Amino acid sequence: MQTLSHPYSSALSSLNNRSRSSFSRITGPARIAVKCGYGFESIYGFGSTRNDWQSSCAILTSKVDSLKSSHAAKENSEAGGADHVAAVNGHVSNVTNLNLVKVDKKQLQPKPLSISDLSPAPMHGSQLRVAYQGVPGAYSEAAAGKAYPESQAMPCDQFEVAFQAVELWIADRAVLPVENSLGGSIHRNYDLLLRHRLHIVGEVQLPVHHCLLALPGVRKEYLSRVISHPQALAQCEHTLTKLGLNVAREAVDDTAGAAEFVANNNLRDTAAIASARAAELYGLQVLADGVQDDPNNVTRFVMLAREPIIPRTDRPFKTSIVFAHDNKGTSVLFKVLSAFAFRNISLTKIESRPHRNRPIRVEDGESEGTAKHFEYMFYVDFEASMAEVRAQNALAEVQEFTSFLRVLGSYPMDMTPWCPSSCRRGGGGDD
After folding, report:
1. Please, are residues 229 and 431 in contact by the beta-carbon 8 Å criterion?
2. Would you name the residues annotated as active-site residues?
3. For position 353, what pLDDT does the model report?
4. Which residues contact 265 (CB under 8 A, 6 or more apart)?
C-alpha cells in the first residue's frame, strides 16, 4: 500500500534512511524536527523572521529592476547613432560605436526570486496538493475532496506522514479526522497537533455510510472473517449480528485498505467494511448497504496548512486552543472556563490529554505523605473568531491562569446542511 502518490514518494523515502522508526508499509521520518518559517511566540502573533523574509524579497525585486535598467542601457548604446552619448571609463563621449560585443540574452543569469515567485499555493482548492491518511477510497479522501474539490489528493499511510508532507512542502494541505460522533476523539491526531506547527484553517463534517464488501460471487454464508478499521467494526457490531454473520472481526489500518487487501489477495472467505467508492475502485460487490448501527454518525475532519488564515467576523468561526495549568490549585480549570462563560462564548469541545513532558506531578505533604497527580493538556474548541474582541479578552484572561497556551487555529465553521448517512452514499467516517 503506497502512502504517497508516485511523484512525491521519492522525497519522503530519502528521509527514511535517517529515521529510526518505520511504518508497516510506507515509512515516514518520525524524528525530524521541522519548524515553521516564522515564529509563534505570542497567542496569535508572529515572530520577526517573516518580516525579514519579506524585506529580503523586496531587496531581490529592486535588484531585478536595476538589472533590467542596465540591460536596457546596453541595448540603447549598441543601437546608438551619431548623436548618441556613451560613457567610457566614467567619461561622457560622443562615440557612435564602441565595438561592444553583443550579449546573448540566453546567456544572462537567471532572474532572482521575487515575492510572487515565493507566494503560497493558491487557495480554494485550485491545484492544491492535499494529504490524507489511507488509500484511495478512504473516507478521508472523500473529506479532502469536499474541502478542496479541485485538489490533487495524496494518500499517506500514517497520520504523521501527512503532517510531515505539509511541513516539508510536499503537500500544501492535510485533511485529517479528529473526532467521531460515536467513537469519540482520534487522540493520535490531537497529540500530533501539539507536536507539529501546522495551523487549522477549516473543518469538514461528513456522515458515515458503511458497506459490507466481498469478491464478486461470494455469498454471506461463506464468510468467516470481516476486516476493517477498529471504529468501523465497532460501529457495525449490531448490524453484523442481525445479518446472521458468525464471523471473526479483525482490525486493520483503514477501511479502504481492508477492501484493497481483500481484492489483492483474492480472499473469498473475507469481507471488508468500507465505502461504496472503495467497492468500485477495487472491483468488489456490495453484500449489504448501510451496515452502520446508527445513521446519525458523523466524523469531523480538520484542514491543516503551514500558515494560519486571517480571522473574520462576517461568518461563523471556530477557534481551537490547547493549554496547561500552572499547578496553582484545582480551581484553575473552572477559572479558565469562566473566562468564556462570562463573555457568552459557547464551548463545543473540551478534551484532556496527558502532558508528555511532565506526566506526573509529585507533592510532599508534612503529614499526608507523598501525593502523585497526573498532569494534563486541555484542548478546547469555542465558537468565536480571533478577530472578535471578546475572544481576545477571553484568551488574555486564560493566559493569566495557565503556564502554556497556544492557538491551533481560528477558522470558518462547516455550515453545510447535514443529513443522516441513510440519505447519502460514500460519506465520511473514520479511517
Report:
1. yes
2. 299, 301
3. 86
4. none
In angstroms, rounded to a whole number, what is the distance separating the alpha carbons of residues 217 and 268? 9
User: pLDDT tens digit string along 153-195?
Assistant: 999 989 999 999 999 999 999 999 999 888 889 999 999 999 9
Backbone angles phi, psi at 304, to 5 degrees: -115, 145
**Mean pLDDT within 375-392:** 94
Site of grid cell 486541555: 378
For the chain, give the mean pLDDT: 76
pLDDT tens-place string over residues 100-142: 445 454 445 555 544 344 444 445 544 799 999 999 999 999 9
Residue 221 to residue 243: CA distance in whole angstroms: 10
Provide the whole-model pTM. 0.67
